[in-house]
Design goal:
401 residues, alpha/beta, Rossmann fold, 6-stranded parallel sheet, 6-stranded mixed sheet, 13 helices, disordered N terminus
Length: 401
């Protein structure tokens, strides 16, 4: 189901482009190209205002219609429509070719109104988590509204915070700072996902990253690898630091006194493409080190690094898993299933993230005290084709002539 949210094929684009539907035109031409935010986010905001005025089931204009009206590319329009789908504002009913508006009344049988704050930047992890939270909210009869935060949106966010009973936050390494002070001033129940929030009284749901790093490293050692490289592709956050600490603890316990010598740091700056950036840095690193890694196995602290590493190793003639075994943190999306070879991962259950987060805010809103305010989810291993067992070589005995 998550893959349906993340993927929009050209076939689907062509199908919805066959239809053209009326929608009230704005009194003035909306200029989106001068916005500070990305074009697709600005377009999504403009469309959201109009979609909310439509009756449930009203067809949404075709991609071609929106392209002509807003003078935007096909990719920008499709991206904006994906944002509206992730917010639950539009949907494509079963066996229907057309997107339609969805009822968004916050008082239509909902127990609580919850605001999900996520970064304006597109991300498979953000999209998958947003979809999981929407699904869980519907099951629990909660109303979940999604709002993208970023520069220049403080006034809009402040208004939305006052209109909801509780807040769930998906943090970003680039633009979360001003957000926290706004949220803290509301004095409403807050749950941060992935990290512990720097907000007084906030709750959290996160991976047990220390255990995750330890589990990944122990598995590679159990397969017969003598050493495990740690590969960093994204900005260092508290969660990646804990994964790194888990890796280091296991390596030291295995007799490696200087595990830092096995760390390859190809991390990018916040906001940069970690897949492309880590790939380019790793290619330079391999060139400088005779196109060889210092170990036969790698633990990628983020799935972005695993994707970059697969390509970089292939281009220098190293085959996975014949020459190098790769195990990665799986993130919240399913991309690791579709690489070649498919990646062995350690991850947590996405549905558990959603249910634990919404249960926490519901408990507090209903006047009850949760048993735990900081929940750590246990990781689990999914074995795929990117790792293999190392068979010890049998000693060769020479026979006297």
């Amino acid at each position: 189901m998550v893959s349906n949210l993340l993927t929009c094929t050209y076939g689907y684009i062509n199908m919805i482009a066959l239809y053209e539907f009326p929608m009230p035109a704005p009194k003035k031409k909306v200029s989106l190209t001068q916005q500070a935010q990305p074009k697709h986010a600005a377009l999504a905001d403009a469309l959201e205002i109009e979609v909310r005025r439509l009756a449930p089931g009203t067809p949404i204009p075709a991609v071609t219609t929106l392209m002509e009206r807003f003078q935007m590319s096909q990719g920008t329009v499709v991206h904006a429509l994906r944002h509206l789908r992730s917010k639950g504002l539009v949907m494509r009913p079963p066996r229907r070719k057309r997107l339609v508006a969805v009822t968004r009344s916050p008082h239509h049988g909902a127990v609580l109104n919850i605001l999900l704050l996520r970064s304006q930047w597109s991300s498979p992890d953000y999209d998958a988590m947003s979809y999981a939270l929407l699904t869980e909210a519907n099951q629990q009869r909660l109303h979940l509204e999604i709002l993208h935060y970023g520069s220049g949106r403080q006034s809009e966010i402040a208004t939305a915070l006052q209109a909801h009973d509780a807040i769930v936050i998906l943090p970003s390494s680039t633009d979360s700072g001003p957000l926290y002070s706004l949220v803290e001033d509301t004095r409403k129940p807050v749950v941060m996902l992935w990290e512990k929030a720097p907000i007084r009284g906030a709750m959290s749901v996160a991976d047990d990253d220390l255990k995750l790093g330890s589990m990944a490293t122990k598995h590679l050692l159990k397969l017969g690898h003598k050493k495990v490289v740690a590969f960093l592709s994204e900005p260092l956050t508290p969660s990646t630091q804990r994964r790194l600490a888990g890796w280091e603890q296991v390596m030291r316990a295995a007799g490696h006194k200087h595990p830092e010598q096995l760390l390859i740091d190809c991390s990018v700056e916040p906001g940069k493409d970690a897949i492309v950036g880590s790939y380019e840095k790793l290619r330079r690193w391999l060139y400088q080190n005779n196109e060889r890694l210092p170990a036969s196995s790698v633990f990628c602290l983020g799935w972005t690094g695993a994707l970059g590493m697969l390509r970089a190793l292939r281009e220098v003639g190293l085959e996975v898993p014949r020459d190098v075994s790769i195990l990665s943190h799986g993130g919240e999306n399913r991309l690791c299933e579709f690489t070649n070879p498919a990646l062995t991962v350690v991850q947590c259950n996405l549905a558990d993230f959603a249910s634990e987060a919404l249960n926490l805010v519901k408990e507090v809103c209903l006047g009850r005290t949760p048993a735990k305010t900081d929940v750590l989810l246990p990781p689990f291993l999914i074995e795929r084709e990117s790792t293999r067992t190392i068979t010890p070589r049998k000693p060769q005995h020479t026979h006297p002539s």
